[in-house]
Design brief:
Helix content: 40-55%
Distance between the termini: 126 Å
Strand content: 15-25%
Radius of gyration: 61 Å
Amino acid sequence: MFFQMTQTASTASLSADGCRVRDWAVGSPRSDSDPRAVHCMDEPVRILVVDDDPQATDRMRTVLDGEAVQVLGARSGAEALTLLHGRFPHVVLLGDGLPDMDSWELCGLIKTAPEMADGLVFMVYPGQPIGEEQAPGLESAADGYLVGPIGDLDLVVRLRPLLRTLRLKLALRAQVERGRALEESLREQKERHRLLLERIGAVVWTLNPRTHRFLDVSPSVKRLRGYSAEEVMARPIQSLLTPDTWLPLKRLIRRETAAFRSGETPPERCYTAEIELSRKGGGTVWTETVAHFAWDPRTGQPVVHGVTRDIGARKGAEAALAESQRRYNLLVDNLPGFAYRRRNDSDRTSDLVSPGCSALTGYSAEDLMALGGPWHARIVHLGDRDRAWGEVQAALKTHGSYELEYRIVTAFGEERWVWERGRGIYGVLGELVGLEGLVLDMDPGRRAESAVRELNAELERRVHERTVALEAANAELESFAFSVSHDLRAPLRAICGFAEILRRRYRDLLDGDGQRYLDNVAAAGARMGALIEDLLLYARTGRGSVRAVPVPLGPLVAELGAGYAERIAACGAELAVREPLATPRGDPTLIRQILSNLVDNALTYRCLQGTPRIELSAVAEEGEVVIRVIDNGIGIAPEDHRRVFEVFQRLHSQDAYPGTGIGLAIVSKAIHTMGGQVDLSSALGSGSTFSVRLPVA
């Protein structure tokens, strides 16, 4: 049985040695999820009565009625341990003789439970003094014990001080935990405030206006100015500012401080200023500072609270915007025309007409904007109005830009050509809300264009007349050359024929000089015949229809090699062909003549030492076929490169290198007849490279 209650006072005592109640230490704050957390001083004290007699719990509730306690009951050790995991008690009265375990064993289990770290356990031994049997209960860390029969009044008297102490401790704990919760909340708020200031780059500070020294500066000043907070607070404010910044700030501090002391200024007054501050180590930074002048309730003196943040990026953007606006204004003001922007409202209100309209139209920007309505219609020439309006509307239907030329009538009645480019301005729903564009003066260009057309027409007429005259002269010259060459053939044939007869019949009758003279006549006649043939070939080159067809070079080169095989072998030369050969577009006959003359030229002007070598190639380069004929002959001086392509121009005597001086002239004429080009790269003693450029097939 838990204890025996009597209606009279008991002689049992609760001595200091018999009831050991340990002090409760205030622990660290607990979270809301901790079942032991106490949140208010009105929470009732919970008492758990553990006894096998159910009447013990009911009697305890009756005895302690009105004491603001909650009495729980358990009839076994297992039931008591189960209750510990739910509504844990503040006090446990543990009776003897439990059915499932010894009371001292249960006491040890209760004291080791986390829920009972701050709970009190009292062992109750009714009707008997403490003996050896009760010693294990005390050794199991029980907080106290009750001995002997206890009456109702005695129980109340004994428990009331304990309950009062528990309530005070619970209230104190609640207060402490609320204070710590507030401290934690304040710490979290300070941390959030610090992180916020660091992210926005702001510096929070407090200034003593009397000493001109900072009382507090946030650590973010290091990133803003390079100074640590300690360095800033150790120096007067004037040493951290430029003179241009400090002087007006000094006057402001004096004025506000005097006003505060006189009581004329309300306690809430803020100032905002943009200040360029110097940085540690050189350089400056633009900042925006908000300063608040107020009374410090602790000292009764004025104090300045402020926030300074970096606005360098904003100032840079503002400077860039100002520069961009300056360039825009410079561009617009110097345009040979004007820019415009107008709304798509009933009045066609103009928001912008640049000043350049005055020089172009004779109307000032204010005049055009004051006209209202579609001012375009008032200055566009009547003959161009419908066309211009139609082109603009067609572009707006497709949300595209418009570009057109039309005439305007200036304020002075003059007609001028202008060029306009613009586009529509559309709202979020795709509706047309306005127009913007540019109108430029095209009149000087139109006049210049007309003058150029007239000049071109006159030039084309003159070129045509001269071309006709030149073609007639060339035709006459070619006809003359052909006639002369043809007429010279008969007498030359007679001279050569009679000279040959003399050589056959009368050579033996002539002395040495006579024979030499006769040989000279025959040789001169032969050279004259070759010259006449070349002259006729030059005259015939390009006279007929010139075809422009793909010309495979392989067959032509093979034919060329066969035709010159005997001559090549006679002089011990080599003809190398670098394949593949690209296919040009031109006249086959002229290309055959070009290749033949170039190979003949290489064989004629070969070096007498070493093996003569001729290399022929044809490659496609940038839409052209370049035919190259390269030799290792005597070469041509750079100053004679153009001369060798002229008729009858010879660089060597007939005895040294025989020829007529027309072969390369035929090459040049044939190439230009097909619309091609010939280049020469050569130097004396270094051979020659002839490059013929013709269209690619």
